[in-house]
Amino acid sequence: MRPDLFEAPDYYNIDDLLSEEHKLVRDAARQWVKRDISPIIEDYAQRAEFPKQIIGGLADIGAFGPYIPASYGGAGLDQISYGLIMQEIERGDSGVRSTASVQSSLVMYPIYAYGNENQRKKYLPKLASGELMGCFGLTEPNHGSNPSGMETKFKDMGDHYLLNGAKLWISNAPFADIAIVWAKNEVGRIHGLIVERGMPGFSTPETHHKWSLRASATGELIFDNVKVPKENLLEGKNGLGAPLGCLDSARYGIAWGAIGAAMDCYDTALRYAKERIQFGKPIAATQLQQKKLAEMLTEITKAQLLALRLGQLKNQGKASSAQISMAKRNNVAMALNIAREARQVLGAMGITGDYSIMRHMMNLESVITYEGTHDIHLLITGADITGFAAFE
Ligand code: TGC
Ligand code: FAD
């Protein structure tokens, strides 16, 4: 991998709309990615291994629970700072951003929002520091886009719950210390349970042979008569709206994160196009490559404005789930298209691990699928504007 020369595009002076705190938080994350992620990430992705040594650094830049109050160990930041941190991390690698998204929005958030005070005190500070790592089990082998059909279930046994079932495609599962698991009770109501590594009957086999998110560990969660203490139930909210509420927060972070991957691809392609000489002149001097670069920057700028406005709405508590879906869908598709175009600008060099573009492109194939597929987010927008849900 070549030295990281990244310079962030800001064509519409969006920095002027950020506070000093936003810029400080963003710049700290940017420097950390340059120093601790860029030099190592290609090797870890090639080996399909999660770089565990970065956990402390992620905690230090506030990536674990950016918007969770400081009294529980979080960074106590606003939603725009959260978005900017995700943008910078995903500029390095979507898989690293995945680790942070899951820990923050899918593990810390449900404990904070739906847990009781004992659960908050027991888990949140350790999750914020990275002493404990978590994962989120919603998807099942037979239920991906339609989690309401989940088969994982738990039974009240008097002094404990008995959990049975399986989850698939779970980020961080192979090394997570705890799992937030969504399961149905005897009457079919969905609840969240905190399952801890070491509980007999709970195993987390790793999923191998991925071409995407190779530096992120993915696995299954298998529950074979797992006895879960009653105190591990998240009592504050139940029903499908509980896990979907966590997804709102993670999808929001992804809407920002995808901009980071797109910026990295654009910046790499621009630098390469200026340096690469063909037919006696830089390829950047040709109209066709300028069209690609100009369109990339236009799309990045639109995505930046969309994310920033969504962040303002989120800070005011006014961002709807459908607005978040629109931003996740648009910005991830934008990033994937830019990765594909940028790859072409580099010609054959674009397929090598010397440059980050192909890794971003492959990663984004997962990002456009998880947290609700591109199709599902379109249907969410469709349902919101017409009043007719077309899922079934
Ligand atoms: P529906 O009838 O529409 O809704 C059921 C209840 O949920 C409420 N609700 C929401 N609440 C909060 N946030 C949202 N985004 C919500 N969307 C819906 C809704 O109001 C209702 O509440 P109530 O009180 O009336 O019961 O449910 P549906 O079964 O028709 O499904 C709707 C659909 C398809 C949109 C939903 O199932 C969906 O979003 N599917 C996609 C599944 C998904 O995104 N899975 C992600 C798994 S986690 C993951 O991918 C992590 S990747 C991590 C990483 O590495 O970054
Ligand atoms: P399916 O639901 O089977 O969809 C297949 C295709 O059909 C898609 O193109 C979809 O858009 C389309 N489709 C589905 N329904 C409709 C419809 N009604 N109308 C039109 N088209 C439709 N899940 C977790 O719970 N936790 C995690 O941490 C997690 N991490 C992940 C990490 C990775 C690397 C990946 C790839 C996935 C992860 N997931 C996780 C799972 C992810 O959320 C699901 O893959 C996703 O929700 C889609 O489910 P599915 O793969 O079963 O696809």
Present the secondary structure layout.
Layout (H helix, E strand, L loop, with lengths): L19 H28 L7 H6 L18 H14 L1 H21 L2 H13 L4 E4 L15 E4 L3 E12 L6 E7 L5 E7 L5 E2 L14 E12 L3 E2 L6 H35 L1 E2 L2 E2 L4 H29 L5 H25 L11 H11 L6 H13 L6
Parallel strand pairs: 1-4
Antiparallel strand pairs: 2-3, 3-7, 4-5, 5-8, 6-7, 9-10
Helix pairs in contact: 1-3, 3-4, 3-6, 4-5, 4-6, 6-7, 6-8, 6-9, 7-8, 8-9, 8-10
The chain binds 3-thiaglutaryl-CoA and flavin-adenine dinucleotide.
Describe the protein in words.
The protein is an alpha+beta fold. The chain has three domains: 116 residues, Butyryl-Coa Dehydrogenase, subunit A, domain 1 (Orthogonal Bundle); 101 residues, Butyryl-CoA Dehydrogenase, subunit A, domain 2 (Beta Barrel); 146 residues, Butyryl-CoA Dehydrogenase, subunit A, domain 3. It is built from ten helices and ten strands. A four-stranded mixed beta sheet has the order 1-4-5-8, with helices on one face. The chain has a four-stranded antiparallel beta sheet with strand order 2-3-7-6, covered by helices on one side. It has a two-stranded antiparallel sheet with strand order 9-10. Strand 9 and strand 10 form a beta hairpin. It starts with 19 loop residues before the first helix and ends in a 6-residue tail after the last helix.
